[in-house]
Each structure stands twice: as structure tokens, then as C-alpha cells.
Amino acid sequence: MAKALDPRFTDPDKAREYLEKQRWPNGPVCPHCGNVDPATITGLKGRAHRPGVYQCNACREQFTVTVGTVFERSKIALNVWLYATFLLCSSKKGMSAHQLHRMIGVTYKTAWFMMHRIREAMSGEYEGPIGGSGKTVEADETYYGKTSTPRASKQRRGRPYIKRKGPQSKNPVVALVERGGETRMFHVENATKENIRDVLVRNASRDSELHTDESKLYTETGKEFAGHHTVKHSAEEYVRREGERIIHSNTVENVFSVFKRGMNGVYQHCGEQHLHRYLSEFEFRYNRRTALGWNDAMRADAALKAIGGKRLTYRRIGEG
Q: What pLDDT, on the 0 to 100 scale, is given for residue 1?
């Protein structure tokens, strides 16, 4: 288990060496041309070069381990970045930017920006659908926060709602969970049958059994799966047994529980344009939870390995 006094959290050179091992386990890789031949990559030394600078003799470009990553061109010491990444990865319900700025000694604005960069590293491409033959996928939707722009109303022929109350004033979030496996969470513009079907068929194998509540949003889409079973929450039914089959959507409800506890209790405020990054954060930690054999250090290492190709600027954060 990593500790705050670990050298990589206190020494910039140790932090750089550690990051190089995570990103380049087989030696330096040129971010400009992709060259991996150690015979053509030279580590530059001497007074004219700071430690960790390499030159690729194939494209004649110089680089460090942070080029092309979310850490690029940052004036914050690399050991501080690694410590912030560890803290965010080890906090089950997240950590506020105010708490982080007090712990690592940076301004609140800097801590806020750092956290968005780390969340960007936590987001990634999915490797195929979840579920499969003999497996169960649970699906549900919830609503969080306030929308930044009014939602269009079908009853008003596409014009915004007059009174923004209830679900139409909140941000819809759809989550899928493979029971005993991973989750995927999405912010959708409207929780409609069409939008939810698109999320389901793109991210869950149709060979899976689908378990949901009694919402009509899943009725038609459920027919496309190996089986669709529901529980009736309105009648206070939360779990039902049919032979050896246990029907419930409690797993996805637990995912929403952790998400909302973190958003309401830790972060408190989140603009709609940033919601997808917060979802990536909670999804990242859930998919690397202790029950699946992960610990805090392993989770932080996974985030460090994923920092490449995701450079984030203030402008991009503002645009969401």
C-alpha cells in the first residue's frame, strides 16, 4: 500500500522514474512518431538538459514522459501530480477540490483543474460489451442536478417546458452493471426509449439476461435480450426468486447510491457540461473495486497508465 511518505510523492525525480516505469515498461516511446527502438532513442544529459529528456533520432524530436499526456506543460511538480492521482483513486466517494488544495498545497483553482485532468485520464475506451451468455446485466436510470439548458417537450412540439420541475429539470444518467463485474454510466440528453435502447445495445451483449425495474423505458428493448425480468418497486418488491434465478436491480441501485453520496456529500455542485467526467471517475473506481482484487495503489497505477493522448486545457474543460 502506498503512503504519503513514499519517495514518488515527495521527490520529483523519483516520481518521474516511477511514471516512466508505468508508461514505458519496455523502454521510452517517442510520442511524436511512435518509435520504440532503444537504439534510436537517446537520454540527454548535462547542464543544458533537465533529467528525463530524451531525443528520438528517427524524427529528431525531444520529449519527456509527460508529453502528450494530461500532465503536459504543467508547472506543478510531478510528485504532486502522482500524490493527487493516488488520493483521488483511493477515495471511494471522491475528494473535493477544496480538500485536495489543502492537502497538497496548491490553490483551489489549480486543484480543481488537476482533478479534471485526472478524471480525463480515468475515462477510456470500452473493450466490447459487458455481459454475455449466462450473465446478468442490470439497467436503470436516475436524475441528478439541474440542467444547463431547458429540455424540449414533445407535448409542446419541441419547445422547452414552461415549468421545469421533476425529471425534466434534471440530468438523466443511465447505468448498466454486469452482476459481479463492471459498470458503465452515461449522461443522456433525455431518458427516452430510443436513447436508452441505444445505450443498451451498444454496451450490453444481447446474449445477457436483462434485469430492470418496471419502467416502460425497457419493455421493448428487453425483448432483444436473452431474457428480460423486472421487479415492481412501486409495490415494494425489490427482489424475487424464480427457481435458481434471483431477480433484482439492487446492484445498479448500489452504483447510483455511491455516485449520489459522492456528488451530494463531497462535490455538492456539478455543471451539466462536466457531468460526464464525474461519471468516468465513479465508474473507474467501481470497476477497480476491492471485490475484484484491486487496491488503492493498483488503481492509481491504472490511472497513470491511461494518461497518454488525453491532454486537457482550460478551454476544453470549459467547453465540457
A: 45
